[in-house]
Hints:
By secondary structure, this protein is mainly alpha-helical. Helix 1 runs antiparallel to helix 2 and helix 3 crosses helix 4. The longest helix has 14 residues, at 17-30. The protein has a three-stranded mixed β-sheet, with helices on one face. The two termini are 22 Å apart. It has helices at residues 2-11, 17-30, 38-51, 55-66; strands spanning 71-73, 83-84, 88-91. Strand 2 (83-84) and strand 3 (88-91) form a beta hairpin. The chain has four helices and three strands. The protein has a domain at 1-33.
Amino acid sequence: MLNEFASVASRKLGMSYAEIRDMLGTVRAVCQTQAVTVDTHERGLDIAERFGFSLYNSMIVSSALQFDCTVLYSEDMQHGGQEIDGQLVVLNPFLGN
């Protein structure tokens, strides 16, 4: 999530690295963060193969599944169109219901 935010904030929002660091500090203060593990990576590869997501997005999905998330907000994947492993639905926060 931290990488995704930094990437979008830089590329699409034109934020400076100082602004990005400031926002990420806020995110880290209110959200639990975990390092990517080998298990997360292996599951991410499986997800990429099964669902056709990019490798980068598959690692995000794998991490969300690892920590029992039920909703993943992303503008890069299909909005609400599928449930991943019977647990996770991807929603685009920039689209209406």
